[in-house]
Amino acid sequence: MKTKNNSVNEESSLFPLAKSRPVKRRKLHEEVADRLLNDIRSGCYPVGGYLPSESDLMNEFGVGRPAIRESLAKLARLGLLELKAGVRPKVCKLDVAPMMSELNGVAKMVLEDPAGQQHMQEIRMMLEATIARFAARTITPKQLRVIWALLEEFRKNIEGVREFSQPMIVKLSDLDFRFHRSIVEVVGNPIIVLLQQSLFDWLVDQRKFTLGHVNQPETTYHAHLKIYNCLAARDPEQAEKEMISHIEQVNATYRRNEQ
After folding, report:
1. Percent of the chain residues topping a pLDDT of 90
2. Is residue 20 part of a domain?
3. Contact between 175 and 150 (Cβ < 8 Å)
4. 177 and 50 in a common domain
5. pTM score
6. Which of 158, 125, 137, 152 is nearest to 241 (CA)?
């Protein structure tokens, strides 16, 4: 014969997650935004077309004007809608730039913590090392010429210079970014290009600080030259290794001088 306690124990074993887990009610504007997003995805509202007026959307979803406006603003921040006063919301082609812009605030908070900076650098290393391997297989002669031209410009700017002014460091930082950007563009994926650009934007202060260190511009040039040679030789494994070595050296220099 089962006792009351035995019954409770059996029930607990059958339902191990049977505990209080209240479901939070979603805000109205989030529900409206999700439904409009599904409508856009399904083609109900095609790119270049217009959504109904705010009044029509209020009637359709049975909500007030604030909920409609918040939902439209959310979709606009994602780059899916263009909002202008006095004009119905226009559906835009998906652009990830606004989404990356939304991450800027979060990224800045992460970078305030040394551990967060390290995590960002690790993301950059993994991304660009993989891209270097891919680029070595697929890069075209025209793309190689673009990268070589950037290398030559970098070399000419550091040749014979013993001390770099702040404007020159800014210029070298831009050339550094353009060198890496040209390799990323070989992939032909606009989302990866945007992600790499965002990482560089978030880490721009560290890059300028590092390039201002003694001998770092020359070290950077020689590292870039090694990477270029691997790309030109169509050597994926060595291209990946040289990219990792380059970024690791930059990270180590930054951490050492920051301390």
Report:
1. 49
2. no
3. yes
4. no
5. 0.62
6. 125
